[in-house]
Write a structure and sequence with these properties.
22% helix; 13 strands; Alpha-Beta Plaits; 241 residues; binds uracil; 4-stranded antiparallel sheet; alpha+beta; Structural Genomics Hypothetical 15.5 Kd Protein In mrcA-pckA Intergenic Region, Chain A; single chain; 9-stranded mixed sheet
């Protein structure tokens, strides 16, 4: 990270205030006075101001209950983004770990920990992702079997086996079926395409968990909170990061 950004993150003021501070000669990096705002700070560097060592937690982890209507991106010209929903105190370099469709709700992890994100998203790691959904059309035990075998959704390869559970059957023709599904991949529109492949339609989709990380039931759509130490530890343990 650039030194001026690092100093801002440490709460030493705006970019222009930090530039003045650097010019004054008060800032040292590993014991040497540094005046250039653009020099890069690594995790192992010690930054001090007037002899006081700063500590900036370089890595941050936030859980967002993504609402429908916003996009899983850091910038968008048309729609609200998931990073727009983070509070002011969150770091500016956070990004969403994977994408949920604009109309999908639920668990989204935002971090600047590229290594952890890479592991969680790697197609080779098969991290479990659990979703709850409302499906138009009757979901049957036959579908459960088909999902367990893997489905042709028009990609080169069939989907990996998915666990489909029927949670509430429709009582009338107009009612939807509530299901829970566990997938181990993250293909584009995967769940919607899996149901399409068996002649059904997803009308509501919400992610409940990703690996060991579970959506906090106290978060309403649009709300977020930093991850707890034990949640970070569990994610790091399971990914080996
Ligand atoms: N599968 C989908 O179809 N959409 C999502 O947002 C996530 C999984």
């Amino acid at each position: 990270m650039r030194l001026d950004k690092y100093l801002c993150e440490a709460g030493l003021g705006t970019r222009s205030q930090v530039k003045k501070l650097l010019k004054s000669g008060a800032v040292t990096v590993n014991g040497k006075t540094v005046c250039k705002p653009e020099i890069k700070i690594e995790e192992a560097d010690t930054v001090a101001v007037s002899g006081q060592t700063l500590s900036v937690s370089a890595l941050e982890y936030w859980m967002l209950c993504k609402p429908a209507g916003c996009v899983s991106a850091t910038e968008d010209s048309r729609f609200q983004t998931v990073t727009d929903l983070l509070p002011r105190e969150a770091r500016r370099d956070l990004f969403p770990v994977g994408r949920l469709d604009r109309d999908t709700e639920g668990l989204l992890l935002l971090t600047n920990d590229g290594k952890l994100a890479h592991f969680l998203l790697s197609p080779r790691r098969h991290v479990d992702k659990v979703y709850e959904a409302e499906i138009r059309g009757k979901v049957t035990e036959e579908h459960v079997k088909l999902f367990a075998e893997g489905l042709d959704i028009g990609d080169e390869k069939k989907t990996l086996p998915a666990v489909l559970e029927i949670q509430r059957e429709p009582r009338t023709q107009d009612e939807t079926t509530r299901i829970r599904i566990t997938i181990r991949e993250g293909r584009f529109h995967q769940i919607k395409r899996m149901f399409e492949a068996v002649g059904c339609e997803v009308v509501y989709l919400c992610r409940l968990s990703m690996g060991s990380l579970k959506l906090d039931k106290n978060l309403k759509p649009g709300e977020c909170r930093p991850l707890k130490e034990e949640e970070i530890k569990a994610l790091k343990e399971e990914t080996g990061c």
